Amino acid sequence: MTLDLGAARTIVAAARDHGRRADLNALTVVVLDAGGHVVAAEREDGASIKRFEIAFGKAHGALALGMGSRSLMARAEQQAYFITAATFAAGGALVPVPGGVLILDQDDATVGAVGISGDTSDADEAACIAGIEASGFTPKAD
Amino acid sequence: MTLDLGAARTIVAAARDHGRRADLNALTVVVLDAGGHVVAAEREDGASIKRFEIAFGKAHGALALGMGSRSLMARAEQQAYFITAATFAAGGALVPVPGGVLILDQDDATVGAVGISGDTSDADEAACIAGIEASGFTPKAD
Amino acid sequence: MTLDLGAARTIVAAARDHGRRADLNALTVVVLDAGGHVVAAEREDGASIKRFEIAFGKAHGALALGMGSRSLMARAEQQAYFITAATFAAGGALVPVPGGVLILDQDDATVGAVGISGDTSDADEAACIAGIEASGFTPKAD
Amino acid sequence: MTLDLGAARTIVAAARDHGRRADLNALTVVVLDAGGHVVAAEREDGASIKRFEIAFGKAHGALALGMGSRSLMARAEQQAYFITAATFAAGGALVPVPGGVLILDQDDATVGAVGISGDTSDADEAACIAGIEASGFTPKAD
Question: What InterPro entries does the annotation carry (chains A, B, C, D) (predicted)?
Fold first, then answer.
């Protein structure tokens, strides 16, 4: 099962809808495929200029190490130097705070990741999960 | 007048609709604000993995030098070394072939740019123009 | 409302005038537009060689995350790894100490940012604020 | 003799004044010291977003190889691969078209460089020369 543009659009729409219902700050939502490449992205009005890159870095970091960015944060709190090194190794896009969530299919295979930035890291992550669940895939946040 | 997410989504949808009606290859559409930052992006199924970066580079190059990417191509054919140098100077994202079109408001101020990659450069540019016209803004392709 | 060169020059002049009256060290003042691009810059005699880049990084970091660089410092003290990652994600120019102040218009829209480096971070920030206030815009330092 | 901020400001003002009198497009003017570091910069309203980087690259390239950027263009036309390689070696900021002019003192020592972008390369160079001459220094365009 693969993540097509239709599913990515569903994730973006549902994540943003979650944000509006939860009264979150302007969100930027980025959906990547299993290879770490952009499938869809939207930045809500009022977001600051580098939110795309932050959201991309959360999702890309999750794919880079095969774990949700919440686990990257846990590792950063234990071994900041490892996360810094992995960021270099991964080419610079690895943001180790919640809000980067893997997208799994029914066989638990990773088909992509969602990254969101704009509100608190916890709220960003909740929006990722809402988006993924609306698409029928399974979120993995840690 | 600014380019909000609503307008950017209109541009993406109309560009993709143009592509389907014209039977183009899978398109990747990227809309940037006046500062060169991502507002919206979609990559159609079947596109190769770096189409986002190519489409981004067309739009970003147009904004960098204040002209549609068709004019960047003309300059590249005359002075390839200038375009190479400008690409470095602009940070690496400047793709000098048609398919990067400035978005002008009613006062001819630049409010953003669209980049498309996936079919021939001419067809990519036509899809940019269709998208911008559907949004009520004015395209500038050269 | 946009930040034109006339306003940027007013900000530079008033910030430097503040520095002279307060007997600060040589200041470097950089004014960016809302997209993070240089509008005006001046480096006072005696400043060290990379003050432009430091001042740029304060202002660019403020725009990147939509908060004055004093808030970036607070975040760095709580989660240094996040600020390190955001610096990579933003392309390298994000200096998380006071002295990067957002420029807001009367609708609280961000129209640019000022970065200053040369004296203590607190004194740099005070010069930013003096400059912005002289231009009729509103400073946001945190 | 050194290039202080007062002289740099004179150069910027005179170059821009030349541009207005000659009815040039919006100019971006960057003045670097002998070490290649920014002393002063101004971007006129309406300029595209990466004009600072282009103007910087002209001036920085001139200092990098110790010749005005017109000579860099001549070299690029003979040996484009050398200029490409020198651009990498110099860190990316070397734009080999006219509009990057060395600033010489009365002993023919290089005290800095001016880079201008916005109009044709020849017109950009003429504005550099006008600026330098107004400051009492000597321009070296090739």
Answer: GlcG_carb_metab_protein, PduO/GlcC-like, PduO/GlcC-like_sf
Q: What is the 8-class DSSP label of residue C117?
A: E
| Alpha carbon distances (Å) from D38 to B73, D17, D43, D130 | 31, 21, 14, 19
The region that residue B93 occupies, defined by phi over 0 for left and psi between -120 and 50 for alpha, beta otherwise, is: beta
Give the span between the Cα atoms of C74 and C57, in whole angstroms. Answer: 16
What is the average pLDDT across B23-49? 98
- Token pair recorded at residue D126: 């003429």
Mean pLDDT rounded to a whole number for chain B: 97
B vs C, Cβ pairs < 8 A, gives 11
Intervals of chain A under pLDDT 50: none
Per DSSP (E only), the strands in B10-61 are 28-33, 38-43
Please report where in the chains the tokens 């270099």 appear, as a residue. Answer: A88
CB contact under 8 A, B9 and A52: no
- The answer, for D10 touching chain B at a CB cutoff of 8 Å, is no
Across the interface, whether the CB atoms of B82 and D96 are under 8 A apart is answered yes
List the alpha helices (DSSP H) in A22-101. 51-65, 69-78, 80-89
pLDDT at A91: 92
Q: What is the pLDDT of residue B1?
A: 66
Phi-psi region of A83 (alpha: psi -120 to 50; beta: other; left: phi over 0): alpha
pLDDT of residue A2: 82
Cα D39 from chain centre: 12
Whether residue B38 has pLDDT greater than 70: yes
- Angle between helix C51-65 and C80-89 (nearest 10): 100
What is the per-residue pLDDT for A37? 97
Asked whether residue C1 carries a pLDDT value surpassing 90, the answer given is no
**D50-72 tens-digit pLDDT:** 999 999 999 999 999 999 999 99
Query: Which residues in chain D show pLDDT less than 50?
Result: none
Contact C38 D41 (CB under 8 A): yes
Nearest Cα to Cα of residue D98 among D118, D132, D72: D72
Closest CA to A103 of A70, A64, A69, A137: A137
Q: How many CB atoms lie within 10 A of CB B78?
A: 9
| Residue contact A37–B44, C-beta within 8 A | no
From D20, D17, D26, select the one nearest D47 (Cα to Cα).
D26
pLDDT, position A109? 97
Measured distance between the N- and C-terminal CA atoms of chain A, rounded to whole angstroms: 22
Q: Which two tokens stand for residue A12?
A: 């973006």
**Structure confidence by residue, pLDDT tens digits, B79-111:** 999 999 999 999 999 999 999 999 999 999 999
Q: Chain centroid to CA B130: how far?
A: 12
Q: What is the dihedral of CA B16, B22, B25, B31, to 10 degrees?
A: -30
pLDDT tens readout for residues A16-36: 999 999 999 999 999 999 999
Cα separation, C79 vs B132, in Å, equals 42
Find chain D residues with C-beta within 8 A of B84's C-beta: 80, 84, 87
DSSP for residue D46: T
Thinking of the domain B5-140, which architecture would CATH place it in? Answer: 2-Layer Sandwich (3.30)
Give φ, ψ of A41 to 5 degrees. Answer: -155, 145
Res D120: pLDDT: 97
